[in-house]
Amino acid sequence: MPAEANMSDLPADARIMEAATTFLRRYGPRRATVVAIAESAGMSHANVYRYFPSKAALIEEVTAAWLRPIESEVRVIAESPDPAPDKLERILAAIQRAYRDKLERDPQLFQILAEAAQIDAPVARKHRARLQGAVQRTIEEGFVQGNFRQVDMPRALALVFDVAHRFLHPAAIVMDARTTRTALNTRASRVTRLLLQELRAGRY
Fold this sequence. Notes:
Helix content: over 70%
Low-confidence stretches: 1-5
Radius of gyration: 19 Å
Number of domains: 2
Number of helices: 11
Order of helices and strands: HHHHHHHHHHH
Mean pLDDT: 95
Distance between the termini: 46 Å
Number of strands: 0
CATH class of the largest domain: Mainly Alpha
CATH topology of the largest domain: Tetracycline Repressor, domain 2
Shape: elongated
Largest sheet: none
């Protein structure tokens, strides 16, 4: 929302989302209550429940909202006309970069995703499925183009996410918070090169 915008000018659901995002960014989910968020949005907590059935549902929607641009970027890369190996490398780099950016800018919000991923909460599961869909489409194109040797799609997907786990799993991103971007990028590039070699050779 632009700095000059007035929250009172927003529709009620958007006001709730804006207030919830601001509260979670500042204090995290454990201090968040529907009453506090409602007060920030300038409405009663009963009105919040008209749009969101619970605090958990509201937090999930806030998380889903900031994940959408990442999913959109990955989808655009997957739909581009570039060769599959280039696209796969760009997809993995885009996810890693976007996660690290969010961790540095909004650590409280990113921690919500990390915890959701650890318990396989719906918001994390849906997000992962969208990313996996883009990766699968790219691998399938690689099979058709002859860039990757086709063996077994589930095994190919497992290879990608197993090998790149450190750079793609939200909990791993948190654990590497003190590692410099330069060091992580170097390691990620090395891992990606090895991954592409295995996909080309069909060693999975």
